[in-house]
Amino acid sequence: MVIVESTLHIWILLAFIAVAIVAFASERIELEISSIGVIAGLLLLFHFFPLENTAGDILLTAGDILAGIGDPALITVLSLLVVGQGIVRTGALDQPIRRLVTLRRHHPVLAIAVVLTTVLVISAFMNNTPVVVIFIPLMTALAERLHRSTSTLMIPLSYASILGGMTTLIGSSTNLLVMAAAVQAGMPELTFFQFTFPGAILAFVGLLYALIIIPRILPNRASITGEVVDISGKQFIVQMEIAADSPLVGEEALMGQFPSLRNITVRFIQRGEHVLLPPFDNITLRPSDAVVFAGTRKSLTEAFSDNPQMLQGLLTTEETENPSPSDLKPVQEQTLAEAVVAPASRMIGRALYQVSFHYRTKCVVVGIQRRSRMIRTSRMTDIRLEAGDVLLILGDRADIMRIRSNPDVLLLEWSAKELPATALAWRARIIFGLVVVSAATGLMPIVVSAVVGAVAMVVSGCLNIYQASRSIDRKILLLIWAALGLGAAMQATGGASYIAHGALSLLMGAGPAVILSIFFLMVAIFTNILSNNATAVLFTPVGISLGVELGVDPMIFVFAVIFGANCSFATPMGYQTNLLVMGPGHYKFIDFLKAGGPLVILLWIVFSIFAPFYYGLM
Q1: What tens digit of pLDDT does each residue of 311-352 get?
Q2: Based on the number of CB atoms within 10 Å of its own CB, is 105 exposed (0-12), middle (13-18) or buried (19 or more)?
Q3: Distance (Å, rounded) from C-alpha 66 to C-alpha 35?
Q4: Sign (positive/negative) of CA torsion 551, 553, 554, 559?
């Protein structure tokens, strides 16, 4: 792209960028609206004030501004979100996590270090957000085991994921956007592990800080607020009939527990006219046994996912007109949700078999929970429903959502969640591994690997189209699009070079190492105020211009942008994982500033000392 340094256009664009920064940082304006507004504003600005060369040719067209929507970096980010969702939906990480839970029982302190290190490593190859979502329950359990507040562990969890993201090219969307902005400015594409060593140094220092310092400086929020974290969750009463082809047939109780029903309390087994009560030593399950048990939603989800055939046994218990097996869709298309029996519901005082719930909603009630007291009954189907009872409902997501119009129950929409398709976990692991290996070895460009991986997740059945589309965050899509548009304008007008000249004039006589250090700190500050993606795209052309002006390799400043833009520790809005842990950790804004501010300074000092020697700037 030909660059024409027009002072008028530069100042107009800088003013526009200032307004965009305020809009992005504002909580009153939706991020999607701000992003679309930036795109529209750029189109209007360069339509009425076109950027032309001396021959009258327009150098920044509407196509150039809008080209970001098809940028390979953006496509890669969106595709990797789909691949990551396939890992989450199939529970591909569940088995390693269960091993960590075993470690927790014997060495809880060591388990914290192992968990955070694991999060850091996984985040180097996966989108950080689902990684944190997966590990939040485990960190909560670790806190309970150590008799500590969750507030001492949740921020370290978020920070470990961010630190891991700065070590590889696909570790964070930020890294891919920096590469896109650098390529837009004429720099070569980054390779997968090109900045892994300096990134690993920063990540190691940051992880030590998160393990040793942060738990000592954060307040015990649970003790301050008097809140007690309920780790076990609500207990639902569930009844299941053992079908002839059920995997539970022939299963024998070991020490009173059935292996397929782990973390589930079996109340009794009704076999014909006989009721078998615990302990169940030497009891073997048979076809037609009615098993009544109590379990949390998490334990039930794990049991259904490991043994999808159990769902048929749940269907046959609800109504006299037993649904056929064809009514039961594949496990990956099933959704669990909770609904409360409404005060004026026609279901009050009636048993499940009397309300024809499946016939009217195409969903099935698999569990009942009564908040006021423990339900004592012979069978779940004999329970007379009361107002306020919570029903655990299984069905297709579309059918679940239609329950919103049912006056007899109040759907808790936040509770609707698909069952993980654990039977497909091996497929997801293979696809994810091939994406990483092909990108890391250069066998295929990263964008090709990511797109093929996303398609493979859908074709293989790990995700359906609806789940894949929901994994694409429109906020990320629109923000990146707007940021790339601003980057194109900065490059075309010569704004980046103009800012670099100004910065060098203020730092007259300073060496490249000092300028690199100050530049890193500036990027790190802005990433906590603005956003990591927007900061990355805006500062990349400035960094390249600084490198050219100083006569050093511009890629050194590109790497500084990657590391600095990933230092989003000091504010909750700095990165989405910080927002995810706010609730479980009972945090306030000041907690992130207290824990993350020193970490930003620490990484700045480490980078300022290490980078000049590593890149030969001394």
Answers
A1: 666 655 544 444 444 455 555 567 888 888 887 788 888 888
A2: exposed
A3: 12
A4: negative
